[in-house]
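Incident log, support desk, overnight shift.

02:14 A customer reports that sequence design results differ from what the structure should imply. Their input is reproduced verbatim below. On-call engineer (initials T.W.) acknowledged and began investigating.
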């Protein structure tokens, strides 16, 4: 499948000629995760032959056997096999494509420094195979300047010159795993190019796969900044309501009721809700990329840094609140049976990257709680096989992820079984129903 019908280097004409028939573009996707796999499937559905490359041989095997799992529409295995797709670990397959899209991770280190190694490694692996006329697009989230100052020089290592021999663009992905409305196909995008030709080629490629508007940006750096700003905006707004939650706990005011009151204003207020922390591969990660880059250029992002600190502290806040509630019930953390519901960073997915539930888990573990864990999306990390088995005999219920499966609990019955305290890390339960059952309710700011 890699070579069948593919053009050779010699007979592939320039990108502009390639663009005359966008319906037959050969697409290479490097990095097959939450972002890469939906793109592979989307491009294939738009009749582009697709090569997917990843360094993880287990993942390649699971994609090839159809065992790869995900909730997003364009991640379903049946999309992969019915289309002209091949996946593997051999970067030389990229020689035969027209467009290479890089979708590798951009994490932070344990002490919150950007880790661009996957991006650098992907570029180094692509470079020897780069062909004249190809377009390389970086979709991974990066701080402004990475595409121009890191990606381009690594690709040029092959002796080809960016902007002359090959084109380069940045088109940040905005996918929201688990979202049933917004997906890789219908989310509007922005794109920036190294030069005019790069921009135009990228626009043509994305126009051939997306069913959504595409906004051209003036520069690569603007396109890179858009994504970081979007996620920082969300991080800051969540930090604000998390701070309110902490303050209102002292003032004995229900922050959720207040936010709902403020939401009646029809303009200039955008409701965000507090919770026990921010997780995932984007919101708690991306701001650090800007913070570090700005610092290297002599600017300190107080606001962004504070938001990160507030959100990172939320599992500790909830743990402390649990300690207060246990104390009131004359119970120690050590040895008390605690049902921890949810490990993933958000409802409906099994992704635990940067999940605050893991921070809380660690705190409960090191304090000696008798933990019973259940996450329906992560059976391998659950201690029991069902919700009921996790709740059996628990004195404390801690909800860390608002999975819909946790929505129908019978608090009266749980109280009869010995439950005393409900710690609602997502303000998910009906507080009055919990209290009406005679249980102590601990929410985030309520
Ligand atoms: N997950 C999201 O919701 C989301 C949304 C929008 C943007 N993004 C951004 O997209 C990028 C990818 O995120 P993701 O969630 O898909 O990551 P992921 O971890 O799910 O997948 C990345 C894949 O890249 C592979 N990989 C790592 N190094 C590689 C290399 N050198 N060569 C080839 N493959 C390599 C990994 O094995 C993995 O399979 C990140 O920059 C992220 O910030 C993620």
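02:41 Re-run completed on a clean worker. Output:
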């Amino acid at each position: 499948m890699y070579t069948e019908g593919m053009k050779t280097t010699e007979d592939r004409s320039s990108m502009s000629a390639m663009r005359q028939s966008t319906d037959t573009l050969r697409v290479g996707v490097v990095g097959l995760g939450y972002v890469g796999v939906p793109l592979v499937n989307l491009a294939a559905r738009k009749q582009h032959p697709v090569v997917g490359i990843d360094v993880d041989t287990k993942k390649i095997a699971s994609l090839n056997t159809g065992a790869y799992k995900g909730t997003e529409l364009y991640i379903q295995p049946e999309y992969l096999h019915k289309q002209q797709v091949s996946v593997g670990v051999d970067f030389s397959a990229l020689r035969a494509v027209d467009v290479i899209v890089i979708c590798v991770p951009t994490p932070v280190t344990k002490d919150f420094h950007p880790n661009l190694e996957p991006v650098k490694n992907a570029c180094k692996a692509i470079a020897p195979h780069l062909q004249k006329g190809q377009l390389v697009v970086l979709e991974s989230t990066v701080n402004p300047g990475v595409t121009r100052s890191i990606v381009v020089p690594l690709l040029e290592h092959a002796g080809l010159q960016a902007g002359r021999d090959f084109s380069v663009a940045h088109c940040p992905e905005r996918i929201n795993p688990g979202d049933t409305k917004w997906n890789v196909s219908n989310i509007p995008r922005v794109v920036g190019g190294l030069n005019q030709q790069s921009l135009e080629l990228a626009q043509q490629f994305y126009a051939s796969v997306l069913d959504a508007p595409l906004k051209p940006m003036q520069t690569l750096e603007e396109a890179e900044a858009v994504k970081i700003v979007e996620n920082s905006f969300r991080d800051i707004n969540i930090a604000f309501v998390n701070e309110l939650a902490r303050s209102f706990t002292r003032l004995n005011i229900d922050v959720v009721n207040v936010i709902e009151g403020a939401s009646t204003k029809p303009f200039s207020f955008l409701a965000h809700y507090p919770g026990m922390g921010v997780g995932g591969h984007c919101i708690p990660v991306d701001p650090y990329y800007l913070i570090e880059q700005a610092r290297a250029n002599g600017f300190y992002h107080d606001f962004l840094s504070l938001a990160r600190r507030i959100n990172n502290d939320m599992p500790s806040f909830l743990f402390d609140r649990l300690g207060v509630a246990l104390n009131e019930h004359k119970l120690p953390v050590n040895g008390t049976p605690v049902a921890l519901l949810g490990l993933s960073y958000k409802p409906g997915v099994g992704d635990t990257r940067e999940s605050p539930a893991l921070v809380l888990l660690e705190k409960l573990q090191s304090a000696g709680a008798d933990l019973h864990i259940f996450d329906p999306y992560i059976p391998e990390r659950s201690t029991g096989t069902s919700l009921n088995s996790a709740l059996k005999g628990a004195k404390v219920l801690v909800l860390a992820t608002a999975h819909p499966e946790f929505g129908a609990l019978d608090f009266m019955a749980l109280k009869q079984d010995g439950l005393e305290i409900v710690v609602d890390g997502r303000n998910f339960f009906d507080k009055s129903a919990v209290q009406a059952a005679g249980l102590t309710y601990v929410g985030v700011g309520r």
